[in-house]
Amino acid sequence: MEYSQDQLKKLVTGLKIFRFCKAIGGHANDSDQLSARIDIKDEKELIRVFKELDITLERSSDGDDPFESIMAGFPKYLQPCHLMMDGAGVFIWVYEDKNSGGNYMLIDISDPVDLSYDVSEEDFDMAKQLEKKFAKLKLEFTDPPVDNERCLCPKYNPDIWK
Fold first, then answer.
1. pLDDT one-digit tens code per residue, 34-77
2. What is the pTM of this model?
């Protein structure tokens, strides 16, 4: 969905945790995203974050299943992938951070019915709904979740937040 500058400003400044990240496009075959990031330094913190978010942490089969999505940095656990969180469709993936040596979780709004490459106003509404839940939890979110100029955030677009 194409937004005017005014519409986009109103939508993105209404969020505190999720950020609108533009797609690379072309052969990347990616889409615009609403993303939130939590840094995870060790297994103890991973378990705590999953518990806070009320997500089941599933164990891997220790290499017996070649089709399992193993969690980077935590090979005994499976990636959460697509799931529902408080009525909102999300895609959650844990990555290794090559720069810090730690790990991080990205939570992307991902409507399981509408698989388009666009971020809809409903997606922004779902992000706001999840932010209300997240505000009650003892979690620390990293801003920006994707640290580059494609992420609309105060760091790269201070004029939007004026």
1. 999 999 999 999 999 999 999 999 998 876 777 889 898 898 99
2. 0.89
Q: What angle do CA 77, 145, 7 make, to 5 degrees?
A: 130
Give the single-character DSSP code of 33.
E
**Cα gap 158→155, rounded to integer Å:** 6
Q: How far is CA 109 from CA 26, 45, 161, in A?
A: 21, 23, 22
In a domain, 161, yes or no: no
Integer Cα distance of 36 and 16 in angstroms:
10
Residue 158 included in any domain: no
Secondary structure, 3-state, 80-144: CEEEEECCEEEEEEEEECCCCCCEEEEEEECCCCCCCCCCCHHHHHHHHHHHHHHHCCCCCEECC
Q: Which domain holds residue 97?
A: 5-24+31-152
Per-residue tokens: 87:
């009525």
Q: How do strand 19-21 and strand 151-152 relate by DSSP bridges?
A: antiparallel
